[in-house]
What we know:
The chain is α+β, with helices and mostly antiparallel strands. The chain is 30% helix and 26% strand. The strands form 7 sheets. A 10-stranded mixed beta sheet has the order 9-8-7-4-10-1-11-14-2-15, with helices on both faces.
Amino acid sequence: MTRTKLFFVVLFLVFSLFAVISASWFLSDKQQSFDQSSSAQTANNSSRYNIVFIVADDMPYNLFNVYNNISDNPWIDNNIEQQRYQVSVQTPNLARLSREGVYFNKMYVSMPECVPSRGAVLTGKYAHMSGIDSNTSGFNIQRNKDNLVQVLKNNGYFNYFIGKCHLGSDYYEGASNSRQAVNRQNPADIFKFLQSVGFDDVVSLIPDQGYVFDWYNYQVARNGASAESINPATMGSEARAYITNFLTNEAIAKIRTARQPFMMWLAHVTPHALHFGTEDEASENTNNLPPYIKSQTKIRGSAGYRYQINDLYQPPSFNAGLADKPIIQRDSYPALVYQIEKNNIKRRYQVAHEMVNNLDTRIGDLFKALQESGKLDNTIIVFFSDNGILFGEHSMYLKGPAFYEELVRTPLIIWFPPSLRSRFRQGTISALASNIDIAPTVLDILNLTVPNAMQGVSQKPVLEGRSVKVRDSVLLEFQDWVHGKYPMRGIVTDDGYKFTHYLATSIPKLCAKGLDYYQTCTQGGSYSGKDMEFYDLTKDPFELNNILYDSNTASVAIDNKYNQMIRSNSVYREVLLKVGREMAYQQTLTNDPYRGNIMNLNYRKLTNTSGQLSFTTDSFSIAEVQYRQSNCSSCQTYRVVVDRLSKTHNIRLNNLEVGKRYDIKVYAINLNVNGAYKEINILVR
């Protein structure tokens, strides 16, 4: 080999060696960067708190004991008076979560119906915006793609679903934004739907429906596989088969092996009807009593219950009747079922106590499992109920289109691990909250971006003690009930006023056949829209006195009691105006389809110190205008109310200063007490 060739061979080897070393260094650096990125992501995820949602089914505020048997009614501001109203059920584990975390005692569901309420929690939206507005509506994935589950999934969470789905009934709507027929008894369909919502691992009840007839014999499916039968024979004992125990055990097993961070949606059926016992319901050949109580009653009869009927507290509204309630309530399904079941109501209530007591025990077991698995210190627990239920209050049983406290006020607990308690308050909070606030609050606690589509407000400022409240009111709505139209709107204010309006409609009358059974009768019912309810909860916490009761409900709603009381300058004039303003604000803020409209809003100067605000409304309305100098918190707020019903409004504004800017709020309240709201800013020239 010549020197020249040798030189080039050596040079080639040197370059090759350099290339290999460089490539090795480059790949090593890239791998190191990837590993660092992966580690950072893992570290970031592991620092994220797990979330466990525990969902009760039809659990009202008065089936929850947080203060040693004393009723926690936020509208009674007198400790001695509070002690008159007891809570019979024992829930020590929920009480512990309330003490160590936060219990919202003014939590209202936006619609007291299973499917819409669950949809509201997951989407953070009112039903009229999510489209999930009845128990027979569907969950449109495309319309609600920014739901709580999907946001968590997008941020690295593994999402578990266990229990009752009930996010739709006759069908589910998929990502194609078209109806997709779903066989509610088909596990694959339910799994596919829940996957599209954002869940990764699913143990679902089959069929997907409102209630489980037999709590010892039912079916479940795991990730869409064929349904398996759960009963004492397959589980080895009644204790393991009992549905509340089974679902809890499934959750415990998942927790022990869960990858972090995770979210778990544990949806129980407790204490939903059917409320079977073991004596007068023997002919049904089944019952829903927890195993221990079931075995004790077989041996000891009625003495085998932990909670004896005569010891159960019942509020002043129990069997109170419907004399001052709207006619629509006297024909309602809960009122008709009550007439059939009234001799068994206390028995049903007794069974519900046993159910809730068992649920509380199982929550204690879940808490212990989190502790033993080492995950408790990195987990936030959220407990809530989809809605409440009536057990004889106002002579009604079960649920339907109404906004009584037992239906719309439910428990909400957020439990924080010790590592977070220095940041958040503990104990009871009396800030007004809605179930549409749950999703944005949880995401805010986790420092995750809340989607703009969510209409709820984060309660984090209240939890941190930075604010006393984030809401002045909560909007209530109802649309359909058992394929009949029941359009309703209502409002609850933070100072304890509740207004309900049953809007004009024609509906088929529901005929009660018995416990949780109904049929649609051939005759129809027609309601004029004059039916209203109004309660001062601080004086009447059990809603016994309907201030807006109008016995003349047959005539057309040319006028109504609300407008009459405002124009007559009654003692409730200012409160009713406030209710109207809050309704107008909330309906406008949430794009409620029943909201009114303010159009052609203009301002013109009259004098150096006055001007005229002109606008029109799409229906006859009363109007109110509030105005104050901009950026001047100490300046006086001026207010003009025109209670004359009109579609054309010309309102004079006085006490203006030339060169100053003014913030102006305009409210219009129509005959249906559906409102419109607008804000403008003007410069006085």
